[in-house]
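Continuing from the previous page of notes. For each protein in this section, the sequence appears first, followed by its structure tokens. Read the first protein now.
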Amino acid sequence: MAQAWHNRAVQGAVWIGLGLACAAGAGPVSSATNRPALGAERTPFLRYDSSLAFTNAQGRVAEVTNVQVAGTWDVWTGRYGLAKSGENLWELDVRTLNARLGQHEFRFIVNGEWETGANRVMPVNLDGEIEQPPAI
């Protein structure tokens, strides 16, 4: 029952231009067109919303079947898969990346294709979670 409620809450919480607002600690959700600033709210999860159409390199709209992430935490050498956690939601516990404290650049790899545009930024705290450092 709780899982069904959570899935409905997740599906119903997508706000255009604002990402996802669900349970406390969930944080924003990225997508092909949504690049929220990460870390305003502490969370161990990096999320990707695949509800918007994915256009591949050949210009064809395709269903998202695989989402990975790569970044500066390991000098772009690894690809880490996000697990499907809802109808159009993919997530990764970033603590598994063993990223060091600081700002890390990254990109999503959707269906084996690197996203275009500027690298995204993920601030990582001492616990390996996404969180902006406190203002001084």
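Done with the first. The second protein uses the same format. Note its length before scrolling.
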Amino acid sequence: MLTLSNVNKTLTSHIYWKWSIGTLEALFSQIVFYLQQITYFLAAAVEACAGVIIGLAAIQATIRALILFFGKLYSNKQTEVPQTENIRLRLGRWLALALEFELAADILRTAIAPSWSEIGQLAAIAAIRTALNYFLQQEIDRAAQRQGNAGLPPSPKQSVERQDNASIVR
């Protein structure tokens, strides 16, 4: 039987249901907004770390090059090529690390990219950075082999190759 109290209960429950769905949607949208902001700031922090690494690597390479240059003025040693190669290898390894940080920041940005065009741009940038890192690592490995590693620790790729070769020899 349709009474005023039944209609009132139905309307009240319907209004409550609509209100709770609207509240949940608003809450969800707030959470998504804050997660996007956190991810954006995290990506910026990772990119800042890459900038610091590049800056410190450049300072280290500059100081080593100046020491080598002015040290050569006061000595007659003919070891300039391996020492300059050593400086170059160290700088290259730091740059490769910084590129990895930049790539990590790009990956974080793809998580919050709102449009397909932004995702496409980030994918293109990530592909370029990956290619740069690959070719830089190849150059570092070739130079390290030419130099005989000159006291530098081997790159991770060289370590794995050496372990594989050692297991084959046994």
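What the second structure shows: The chain has four helices and no strands. Residues 4-74 form the longest helix (71 residues). We return to this in next week's lecture.
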